[in-house]
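Hey L., structure's done. Input below.
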Amino acid sequence: MINLKIALIILIVFGFVYGDAYSKNITYGDFLSTQSELPNFESYKTEILPFTPAKELKISKKESGWIYRNTLRKAFNEDANFSGHYIISSIGCGSPCQINFILDKATGRVVDSFESSVGVLFNKDSNLIIVNPSEGYEDTLLDEFPLWLEMSFYELSNNKLRLIKELKIDSTKKSEE
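Output:
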């Protein structure tokens, strides 16, 4: 009987804590429509200049990407895909989870890393990164907006990511339907 009571308490607590993790009354489109002046790739254009690529990725045991060194070395052999001479390499770390590394093709170094839940958007001729974009959300989570999901906009400047804007859903504002 005690085990049944403990199980019931666990279920109630789990339902209370995690039951509101999704809000079915808020769609991602509704949420984005309340935001003004979202950063865009056009506003963060970067000039693509010729560069001499490094021969290989240099990564030490002290760096965060060491555990992924083989995957990152393979990615480093690809063409630059971000902000002129950088590569963004995404590695799955669970569902939904990705760890993303920014590799500098010119120096052969890991510049920075960041996590995402439903992907990233970036362009070769822009230094803007959109973490957890609406495109990734719509493909992954259908019509339920998870309250934990944040859409973030970063700029790569002087080899560091700078947060420009972060969108968090306000769970107290639900659309009327």
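The chain has one domain: 2-168. The longest strand covers residues 86-94.

-- N.
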